[in-house]
Amino acid sequence: MHLEEISFHVAPGAHAVVLLDQAGWHGSAELAVPPNITLLPLPPRCPELNPVENVWQFMRDNWLSNRIFKSYDDVVDHCCYAWNKLADQPWRIMTLGLRNWAHRY
User: What is the number of other CB atoms lying within 10 angstroms of the CB of residue 59?
Assistant: First the structure.
């Protein structure tokens, strides 16, 4: 369903490349990939190539770590709070995704 949603938002005549890590569920043989999307798996054990890893780390470090959650709903509430707080800081998301080594040359 997620890939269908991405596919729907790809401009007519365009093609999307979706980067993904090597999590087992990303490579299921049953996964239906729309024709206007190409999946590009990152090499295994290379989190430095996946900028979203920095996003998750930032959220854990700043809003989700060192706490005891009372319930599942409490976990969800804290995660939603963290995600919305980060979404209100687009400049932060941009800086978290930058890779200095990619801009040296």
Answer: 19
Are the C-beta atoms of residues 90 and 63 closer than 8 Å to each other? no
Q: What pTM was computed for the model?
A: 0.58
Q: How far apart are CA 59 and CA 67, in angstroms?
A: 13
Break the chain down into helix, strand, coil percent, rounded to 5.
Answer: 50, 10, 40
Q: Where are the domains of the chain?
A: 2-44, 51-102
Q: What is the mean pLDDT of the chain?
A: 87
User: Alpha-carbon distance 10 to 51, whole Å?
Assistant: 21
